[in-house]
Amino acid sequence: xxxxxxxxxxxxxxxxxxxxxxxxxxxxxxxxxxxxxxxxxxxxxxxxxxxxxxxxxxxxxxxxxxxxxxxxxxxxxxxxxxxxxxxxxxxxxxxxxxxxxxxxxxxxxxxxxxxxxxxxxxxxxxxxxxxxxxxxxxxxxxxxxxxxxxxxxxxxxxxxxxxxxxxxxxxxxxxxxxxxxxxxxxxxxxxxxxxxxxxxxxxxxxxxxxxxxxxxxxx
Length: 219
Description:
two-stranded antiparallel ribbon
C-alpha cells in the first residue's frame, strides 16, 4: 500500500511496534537491513491467487524475507507490503503506517485473519488508496474505518493488531493481497480503467525514483 502523504504522522509522534507502544522508533527501522527486491506488478499471476499459509516459523529464511520486505517497502515509499508483492506466495505482510490519530504502527503479521465491525456498526470511508504493485496510480476506495487483524509473528507467537482510520485501511489492503486481490478489484470498470491509465503514465517515473533511493542506500 502506498503512503498517504497528506496527514501522515510526523516521525516523533507516538509509535506502536507489533501492537505494543514504544517511546521511539527510527525512521528506517533496524528490520530494514536486508536486500531490495523487485515489486511485482498487477497482472502477474502471483498477485491473483491466494497465498499459502506460513508453516515454518523462527527460520533464518523467514527473518531474511521480512527484512527484505521492510527495506523494499521503504525504498518504494510504501505503508505496507505483502509477500506476493515480492514474488513469494506466503501469507505474510509488513507495515509502517500512521492512523488518523497520529500514531505510527510498525510490524509484521503472518497468516492474518481480518475482522471487521458488524454491518450495523460499520462506518465506510471513501479514501485515497494506492498500491506499490500499481505504481503511480491511486483511487478512492470505500472501506470500514476499523479493523482487527489476528495472526502470528515470525516466531509463531499470536498477535492481535487493532487499526483505525488509515491504518485499518492498510490492514485490509494487505489482507486482500494475500487472498489474491488488489484494490483495483474493488473499483468500478471506469475507475479501474482510470487507475491503469495513471499507472501507464507514471510507472517509469516511479521506477526511476525507486532506483535512485536504492542506489542512495548502496543496495
